[in-house]
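Researcher: Checking consistency across runs. Here is 2'-5' RNA ligase again:
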Amino acid sequence: MARRPPSPFHFFAALPPPPVADQIATAWQRFGTGEPLRRDKLHLTLIPVAQSDLPPDRLQAAMQAAGDLIDLPAFPLTFDRLETWPQRGRQDHPLVLTCDAACQPAARLSRALRDALPADLRWPPRPFRPHVTLALGKGFPDPIALPMPITWQVRQLTLIQSLRGKGHHIALMSWPLADR
Protein backbone atom coordinates (compact mmCIF):
# COMPACT_ATOMS: atom_id res chain seq x y z
CA MET A 1 0.00 0.00 0.00
CA ALA A 2 1.37 3.42 -0.97
CA ARG A 3 1.89 5.92 1.84
CA ARG A 4 -0.10 9.12 1.69
CA PRO A 5 2.06 12.20 1.41
CA PRO A 6 2.19 14.20 4.65
CA SER A 7 -0.49 16.83 4.97
CA PRO A 8 0.69 20.36 5.61
CA PHE A 9 0.13 21.91 9.01
CA HIS A 10 -0.14 25.70 9.45
CA PHE A 11 0.78 27.86 12.41
CA PHE A 12 1.65 31.45 13.29
CA ALA A 13 5.13 31.96 14.70
CA ALA A 14 7.78 34.46 15.70
CA LEU A 15 11.13 33.69 14.09
CA PRO A 16 14.41 34.62 15.77
CA PRO A 17 16.64 36.88 13.67
CA PRO A 18 19.98 35.33 12.56
CA PRO A 19 22.09 36.85 15.40
CA VAL A 20 19.64 35.40 17.94
CA ALA A 21 19.71 32.03 16.17
CA ASP A 22 23.50 32.21 16.59
CA GLN A 23 23.07 32.84 20.34
CA ILE A 24 20.68 29.89 20.56
CA ALA A 25 23.19 27.67 18.72
CA THR A 26 25.96 28.77 21.10
CA ALA A 27 23.80 28.01 24.15
CA TRP A 28 22.87 24.62 22.67
CA GLN A 29 26.51 23.82 21.97
CA ARG A 30 27.42 24.66 25.56
CA PHE A 31 24.45 23.18 27.46
CA GLY A 32 22.69 20.86 25.00
CA THR A 33 22.44 17.10 25.03
CA GLY A 34 24.40 16.42 21.85
CA GLU A 35 21.25 15.95 19.79
CA PRO A 36 21.30 17.88 16.50
CA LEU A 37 19.99 21.45 16.79
CA ARG A 38 16.97 22.06 14.54
CA ARG A 39 18.45 25.40 13.51
CA ASP A 40 16.54 25.75 10.24
CA LYS A 41 13.23 25.38 12.13
CA LEU A 42 13.78 27.63 15.18
CA HIS A 43 10.55 29.46 15.99
CA LEU A 44 8.17 30.40 18.77
CA THR A 45 4.75 28.95 17.92
CA LEU A 46 2.16 31.60 18.68
CA ILE A 47 -0.90 29.61 17.63
CA PRO A 48 -1.68 26.66 15.38
CA VAL A 49 -4.34 27.01 12.70
CA ALA A 50 -6.98 24.33 13.19
CA GLN A 51 -7.14 22.62 9.83
CA SER A 52 -4.14 20.71 8.59
CA ASP A 53 -4.80 21.06 4.87
CA LEU A 54 -6.31 24.52 4.48
CA PRO A 55 -8.31 25.23 1.36
CA PRO A 56 -7.33 28.53 -0.27
CA ASP A 57 -10.30 30.49 1.13
CA ARG A 58 -9.54 29.40 4.72
CA LEU A 59 -5.85 30.14 4.26
CA GLN A 60 -6.85 33.61 3.06
CA ALA A 61 -9.07 34.04 6.14
CA ALA A 62 -6.13 33.17 8.42
CA MET A 63 -3.94 35.67 6.58
CA GLN A 64 -6.61 38.36 6.88
CA ALA A 65 -6.84 37.77 10.64
CA ALA A 66 -3.09 38.29 11.00
CA GLY A 67 -3.18 41.38 8.79
CA ASP A 68 -5.77 42.91 11.11
CA LEU A 69 -3.25 42.78 13.99
CA ILE A 70 -0.32 44.65 12.49
CA ASP A 71 -0.82 47.68 14.71
CA LEU A 72 0.03 45.56 17.75
CA PRO A 73 3.40 46.67 19.12
CA ALA A 74 6.68 44.83 18.69
CA PHE A 75 7.91 43.42 22.00
CA PRO A 76 10.99 41.96 23.67
CA LEU A 77 11.05 38.23 24.33
CA THR A 78 13.51 36.71 26.82
CA PHE A 79 14.19 32.99 27.23
CA ASP A 80 16.07 31.94 30.34
CA ARG A 81 16.23 28.15 30.53
CA LEU A 82 16.41 24.82 28.74
CA GLU A 83 13.91 22.08 29.61
CA THR A 84 12.64 18.71 28.47
CA TRP A 85 8.93 18.45 27.77
CA PRO A 86 8.09 14.75 28.13
CA GLN A 87 5.41 13.40 25.83
CA ARG A 88 3.62 10.14 26.51
CA GLY A 89 4.43 7.35 24.13
CA ARG A 90 7.59 8.99 22.77
CA GLN A 91 11.23 8.34 23.51
CA ASP A 92 12.39 11.51 21.79
CA HIS A 93 10.97 14.44 23.75
CA PRO A 94 11.02 18.12 22.77
CA LEU A 95 14.08 19.85 24.23
CA VAL A 96 13.07 23.49 24.50
CA LEU A 97 14.20 26.99 25.29
CA THR A 98 11.50 28.54 27.49
CA CYS A 99 10.56 31.26 29.99
CA ASP A 100 7.80 32.36 32.34
CA ALA A 101 6.93 35.99 33.11
CA ALA A 102 9.22 37.36 30.40
CA CYS A 103 6.99 35.67 27.81
CA GLN A 104 3.75 37.47 28.71
CA PRO A 105 3.85 39.74 25.62
CA ALA A 106 4.00 36.61 23.43
CA ALA A 107 1.00 35.21 25.31
CA ARG A 108 -0.93 38.43 24.59
CA LEU A 109 -0.11 38.17 20.86
CA SER A 110 -1.18 34.51 20.88
CA ARG A 111 -4.55 35.44 22.44
CA ALA A 112 -5.02 38.30 19.96
CA LEU A 113 -4.38 35.94 17.04
CA ARG A 114 -6.78 33.37 18.44
CA ASP A 115 -9.47 35.99 18.91
CA ALA A 116 -8.92 37.34 15.37
CA LEU A 117 -9.14 33.94 13.66
CA PRO A 118 -12.51 32.79 12.34
CA ALA A 119 -14.09 30.22 14.69
CA ASP A 120 -13.54 27.33 12.25
CA LEU A 121 -9.77 27.95 12.29
CA ARG A 122 -9.35 28.08 16.08
CA TRP A 123 -7.97 25.21 18.09
CA PRO A 124 -9.74 24.50 21.35
CA PRO A 125 -8.37 26.84 24.05
CA ARG A 126 -5.30 25.55 25.84
CA PRO A 127 -2.60 27.12 27.96
CA PHE A 128 0.04 28.97 25.98
CA ARG A 129 3.47 27.55 26.84
CA PRO A 130 6.03 29.77 25.09
CA HIS A 131 9.02 27.84 23.84
CA VAL A 132 11.43 27.27 21.00
CA THR A 133 12.03 23.58 20.25
CA LEU A 134 15.76 23.09 19.81
CA ALA A 135 16.01 19.32 19.37
CA LEU A 136 14.33 16.01 20.09
CA GLY A 137 15.91 13.51 22.45
CA LYS A 138 16.01 11.88 25.88
CA GLY A 139 16.36 15.23 27.55
CA PHE A 140 17.76 16.94 30.59
CA PRO A 141 17.43 15.47 34.08
CA ASP A 142 16.51 18.98 35.36
CA PRO A 143 15.88 22.40 33.77
CA ILE A 144 19.05 24.36 33.03
CA ALA A 145 19.06 28.08 33.83
CA LEU A 146 20.99 30.01 31.19
CA PRO A 147 23.65 32.29 32.70
CA MET A 148 22.94 34.76 29.86
CA PRO A 149 19.25 34.80 28.85
CA ILE A 150 18.49 34.98 25.14
CA THR A 151 16.44 38.01 24.12
CA TRP A 152 15.08 39.27 20.85
CA GLN A 153 12.70 41.99 19.77
CA VAL A 154 9.74 40.31 18.07
CA ARG A 155 9.01 42.61 15.15
CA GLN A 156 6.84 40.38 12.97
CA LEU A 157 4.65 37.34 12.94
CA THR A 158 4.88 34.70 10.23
CA LEU A 159 2.45 32.10 8.89
CA ILE A 160 4.34 28.82 8.51
CA GLN A 161 3.41 25.72 6.56
CA SER A 162 5.03 22.64 8.06
CA LEU A 163 5.25 19.50 5.96
CA ARG A 164 4.67 16.85 8.62
CA GLY A 165 7.13 14.04 8.56
CA LYS A 166 9.39 15.93 6.16
CA GLY A 167 11.01 18.25 8.70
CA HIS A 168 10.48 21.22 6.41
CA HIS A 169 8.94 24.63 7.17
CA ILE A 170 7.84 27.14 4.56
CA ALA A 171 7.23 30.78 5.53
CA LEU A 172 4.09 31.71 3.59
CA MET A 173 3.73 35.34 4.66
CA SER A 174 4.94 37.72 7.36
CA TRP A 175 3.37 40.79 8.94
CA PRO A 176 5.35 43.51 10.73
CA LEU A 177 4.34 44.57 14.20
CA ALA A 178 4.27 48.27 15.00
CA ASP A 179 7.52 49.89 16.18
CA ARG A 180 6.63 52.18 19.06
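Researcher: Does this match what you'd expect to see?
Model: One thing to look at in this run: The two ends are 56 Å apart (CA to CA).
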